[in-house]
Amino acid sequence: MKTLIGVTTVWSIETRGAEKENPGGILYNPAHYSNALYQAGGLPVLIAPPVLENDSATLEALAGSILDKLAGLYFSGGGGTRLFKAPDMPGLEKQQPVRYRFETMLIKEACKRNMPMIGACRGHQMIVEALGGKIKRDTVTGHQQKDEDKILHPVQIEKTSRLEKLIGKESWPVNSLHCQVAEKAPPGFIVSARSPEGYIEAIEAEGPVFQMGFQFHPEIMCEFDPLAKGLIGSFVAAAEDYSRSR
User: Fold this and answer.
1) How far apart are CA 150 and CA 226, in angstroms?
2) Which own/partner pairs from 60-66 qualify as long-range (CB within 8 Å, at least 24 positions apart)?
3) CA 218, CA 228: separation in Å to the nearest integer?
4) Partner residues linked to 214 by β-bridges
5) For residue 238, what pLDDT is reported?
6) In CATH, which of 3.90.1570.10, 3.40.50.880, 3.90.215.10, 1.10.10.10 is domain 4-245?
7) Most buried in the list 51, 90, 109, 172, measured by CB within 10 Å?
């Protein structure tokens, strides 16, 4: 059986507000995430946050039960929020409180288990904040592009980092769809790539566990960039190793 990898989803109530045709909202995720994992040999499983549950103990138990079935996690991006726009973009928790609460539990539990995980864009920022890092308060400009399947700017990759070993280069052109950035990596993580302005573009866990965050979208890039495709493949391979070790 292929390795199961969880992919987080977005609740439309938090990104678009209430809609007549879907009064309870919908849970969704762009197909790029699943496509990338399928192509790399993984089996993606969409994780639905329990939107009607508020009890912390119950949520923690649910998070643990979900991770019992998985070998890796992919924390997805913002999902196209329409309720907030830069420069008046609030923090991650205020943007999507239900999602934030549950993903925080998943991230912390995954770290306890040394489970492989990737965060892209908002998912990257979630890993940073949930584990004690810091998100820059002010929004940034010049990092939003209309065509997600193109590259916008290069990132400088830290020498000897896991990312440098996976990519094999010190500079990598990436796509960019964000207006918020991380200001400080969480404890136990290093900054592995920065933009030309010095913004944090990638982080990774110190040590052997494959836990990485990217301000860009490698799951989209792997459709046209062999380096990104290899990166996702390495993540799936790490999840397979984790599954065999349990």
Assistant:
1) 14
2) 60/105, 60/109, 62/102, 63/102, 63/105, 63/106, 63/109, 64/109, 66/6, 66/106
3) 5
4) 120, 202
5) 98
6) 3.40.50.880
7) 172
Phi then psi for residue 139, to 5 deg, are -80, 160
CA 142/CA 40 separation, integer angstroms = 31
Residue 171's closest CA among 201, 142, 141? 201
Give CA–CA dist 180/133, Å, rounded: 14
Please list the alpha-helical segments (H only) found in the chain. 12-15, 31-39, 56-69, 92-95, 97-112, 122-130, 162-167, 218-221, 226-245
Q: DSSP of 184-206, one letter per residue?
A: EPPTTEEEEEE-TT--EEEEEES
Give the three-class secondary structure for 72.
Answer: strand
- The percentage of residues in the chain with a pLDDT greater than 70, rounded to a whole number, is 99
Strands 153-157 and 171-174: antiparallel
> In degrees, to the nearest 5, what angle opens at C-alpha 33 toward C-alphas 130 and 127?
10
What is the crossing angle of helices 31-39 and 226-245, to 10°? 70
Q: Report residue 37: phi and psi, to 5°.
A: -70, -40
In the three-class reduction of DSSP (H, G, I as helix; E, B as strand; rest coil), residue 26 is classed as: coil
